Amino acid sequence: MRKKLTIALVAHDHRKADMVDWVIYNSDFLAEHHLVCTGTTGKLVREALNREGVFPEITCMNSGPMGGDAEIAAMVVRKEIDMAVFLIDDLNAQPHEADIMMLLRQCRIHNVPIACNRYSADLMITSTLWDDETYKPMEPLYRKFDRNKPE
Ligand SMILES: O=C(CO)COP(=O)(O)O
């Protein structure tokens, strides 16, 4: 892959081991890209990749409950994120449910690919579309809310 992507990586506590497994499995791929993570996920991802001898650029935001999801959602809105992997704990309630919903919602609105399980994440990072210069992602579905576009 030629283009350096900015990839958001976020995992809830019960999914952090899965995220660590996934980043190790894909360490060669991730080495070439910029990773943006919520606080604790980022720390674990960095440690795991460094142990593998891989040192990608990693930006750690706040921890999720302290606003990390919201910070990443804001980056999505500013078109600073190319794709996201968000391993959600679907079996336990989170105190920052509203922020989680916001991150998911902004990815949907801004047409940012987001994988919420490992299979989707693997399909996403192996897509040939990343290198297809003729491929243009669809415009946002909510065009009428895009202030830069005439009706
Ligand atoms: O809570 C999270 C995502 O909603 C993850 O936050 P941490 O990576 O800081 O644990």
UniProtKB/TrEMBL annotation:
Keywords: Lyase
GO biological process: methylglyoxal biosynthetic process
Superkingdom in the source lineage: Bacteria
Record-linked CDD domains: MGS
PROSITE patterns: MGS
Active site location: D69 (proton donor/acceptor)
Pfam families to which the protein is assigned, alphabetical: MGS (PF02142)
Reactions it catalyzes: dihydroxyacetone phosphate = methylglyoxal + phosphate
Gene Ontology terms, MF aspect: methylglyoxal synthase activity
Catalytic class of the enzyme: lyase
Domain MGS-like stretches: 1-151
Listed EC numbers: 4.2.3.3
Residues where substrate binds: H12, K16, T38, G39, T40, T41, S63, G64, H96
Keyword Lyase: yes
Keyword Transcription regulation: no
Family: Belongs to the methylglyoxal synthase family.
Function as written in the Swiss-Prot or TrEMBL entry: Catalyzes the formation of methylglyoxal from dihydroxyacetone phosphate.
PANTHER family reported in the protein's UniProt record: METHYLGLYOXAL SYNTHASE
This protein's name: Methylglyoxal synthase
Species name: Petrimonas mucosa
